[in-house]
Design the sequence.
């Protein structure tokens, strides 16, 4: 049984890739970009260990208007073989678009990648690559700093018509609130967490109030 260690999932979003997609945030990242938006997801211990056939069943059972999945994190390439296997399971049932983030560059992965990383690259339609550089934070489509690139690895999707942020979605459940997206400005996470605290809502995993200048990225 193949296990993927994840932080969380979302059943639908329109701001992390083309169309309407599910998202899986994997747990663990070997990189330490200053200003990473999810420092609680970086250690390789902890996380939620899930069987990939269980995740595949959940994904392929989503409504028909969900036509893809995005792997974010954490570092998807740290669990690339598992994600390649998950992608194959999904595509047995549905012809889905698959996109991934990585803090590595595509060139590095092609030259030095493991067999699992090469397998995942071969399965992806879209890759957003490169580490988050806080000093280069910018208002960009699906990425947070201007060194990061959107690679269309297949002809499934045209290039985005606009290269500005796709926006932020706020998802409110019965007992929790989460936001999804790549903020166009630095510091969004702290500002949003404070705004929620002011309204009596504590976000899961939100940091304590801080004077840190930049804390945003999706990588
Ligand atoms: S921004 Fe992405 S690549 Fe960088 S430390 Fe955070 S999760 Fe890892």
Sequence:
């Amino acid at each position: 049984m193949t296990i993927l260690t994840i932080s969380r999932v979302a059943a639908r979003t329109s701001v992390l890739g083309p169309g309407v997609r599910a998202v899986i945030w994997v747990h663990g990242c070997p990189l330490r970009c200053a200003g990473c938006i999810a420092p609680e997801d970086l250690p390789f211990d902890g996380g939620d260990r899930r069987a990939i056939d269980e995740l595949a069943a959940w994904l392929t059972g989503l409504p028909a208007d969900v036509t893809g999945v995005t792997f974010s994190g954490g570092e998807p390439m740290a669990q690339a073989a598992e994600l390649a296997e998950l992608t194959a399971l999904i595509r047995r049932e549905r012809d889905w678009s698959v996109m991934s983030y990585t803090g590595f560059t595509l060139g590095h992965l092609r030259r030095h990648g493991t067999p699992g990383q090469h397998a995942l690259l071969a399965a992806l339609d879209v890759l957003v690559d490169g580490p988050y550089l806080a000093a280069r934070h910018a208002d960009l489509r699906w990425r947070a700093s201007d060194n990061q690139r959107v690679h269309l690895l297949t002809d499934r999707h045209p290039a985005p018509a606009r290269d500005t942020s796709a926006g932020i979605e706020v998802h409110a459940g019965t007992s929790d609130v989460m936001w999804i997206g790549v903020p166009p400005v630095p510091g969004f996470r702290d500002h949003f967490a404070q705004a929620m605290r002011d309204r009596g809502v504590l976000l899961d995993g939100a940091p304590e109030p801080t004077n840190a200048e930049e804390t945003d990225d999706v990588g």
Observations:
- The pocket of iron/sulfur cluster is lined by residues 29, 31-33, 36, 38, 42, 73-75, 103, 131-132, 217, 219 (CB under 6 Å).
- The first strand starts at residue 3 and ends at 13.
- Residues 60 and 93 are 7 Å apart (CA to CA).
